[in-house]
From TrEMBL:
GO terms for molecular function: cyclic-di-GMP binding. Residues 6-107 form the PilZ domain. This is PilZ domain-containing protein. Pfam families: PilZ (PF07238). It comes from the Bacteria.
Amino acid sequence: MTEDYRRARRVQAPENIEVLDTMTDRVIGHVGNLSETGMLLTSGSPLVDDALYQLRFELPDGTGSEPIEVGAHLLWQNMASAPGQTWAGFRFITLSESSQACLRAWLGPSQ
């Protein structure tokens, strides 16, 4: 069994959650998993190593809540098994209180 030593619990995206780069107004990928501090993104678009991004996505909670907007730092990226796809790890650096509350509610209680 593999131990997970990450500080924040991650939750797999239960469905397709598009992530928009608000600076270019383009979808750059889809959420693989989320935590309070970051996300794993699957991307078919080229990303810039060690860059800062302004991202927006909507959580599938059925309540019609506001989109989550985050400032995020691209920590790493690796080629995925699908041609032209990459996995990318982002750390959230800015998140409004309301977006943080929505994200925490969606993630559910810590275990």
